[in-house]
């Protein structure tokens, strides 16, 4: 199998990329824990969290769409510095918004910053890192998302306002922005996403049924990943009467299992095979989702979120790593961007729609809906792996 040579990054930049993904995950999971307090502060309905997710997702989609051009124009390092600064500003906006409209605006800023960071670091990893490092990069995101809800729930359970938790996250992001700014010249100017000379047009990629199937899988996968993060705390505390600290720990367990699953999958994916690994993992996640949908609490709920986290863990990086071989390098150059866009739309739409359902049918509609969608995801992946590969592996 031919493998193109990759220019390996400096150890310091590699370490900073991993830290960057930890910081990227840190703010993404705190809103689910803070939401009951935010909702009560502004006198909102349960499903209003969907508006935050949609607005943030639109900002993410916009910045990720233009991230390639911005990287080519200003350089990756400066893009990372500015984008991380935007996320820091959004965290302080969440903390001190005097009205609901300002909170929504902070969600837009958060999405703008996060989309550029995610696209920039993923492009850098695809250009400079082997597949196992790409998987471990996403594991770092999970560890950041593990810290976030535990941090926020600790502030809330000690009687401090949610603004304290958001401020702590904002301070961390500000430090990362300074580090990116100090090293911006070392990151280079371009990434694969920034190349202006792609051999196949985007329209050709969009005419591929396989591209649309993969986009659907990314849509559902990321939507489910965010759903378990954003809704577990609220379902456990307000529907199943679990204590705040315990429910926050359950969310932390979920993200911890996502991270641990990605670390482990980095070691075994090549031996087991990516398609087979994902088949087993999706079945495990479906088992966990069905357990949560049954209405359990306590240790059984912890087991459910742990299985969901472990099962979903390798999906995003493994599906990304298979894209060039599955579609061919010409189509995949565009398809990867479409997949990221579909993933972010799913991250906003799926938990948002489930939130609307929760407002009408009760909170228990969320885990039931998640189980149904996980079954759909498993079915779509089975269809995908039956399609023939058309390109060579590039990892």
Overview of this protein structure:
The chain has 395 residues and is mainly alpha-helical. The chain has 15 helices and no strands. Helix 9 packs antiparallel against helix 12 and helix 14 packs antiparallel against helix 15. The radius of gyration is 20 Å and the shape is globular. The model is unreliable at 1-7 and 189-199 (pLDDT under 50).
Kindly summarize this structure in a few lines:
The chain is mainly alpha-helical. It is 81% helix and 0% strand.
CA gyration radius, whole angstroms: 20 Å
CATH fold name of the largest domain: Growth Hormone, Chain: A
Compute the average pLDDT. Answer: 83
**Could you say how many structural domains there are in total?**
2
Fill in the keyword field for this structure:
single chain, 395 residues, mainly alpha, Growth Hormone, Chain: A, 2 domains, 15 helices, 0% strand
List the helices and strands and how they pair.
Blueprint: H1 11-28, H2 30-42, H3 49-74, H4 76-96, H5 100-128, H6 131-157, H7 162-182, H8 202-206, H9 209-239, H10 244-272, H11 274-293, H12 299-312, H13 315-327, H14 329-361, H15 365-385
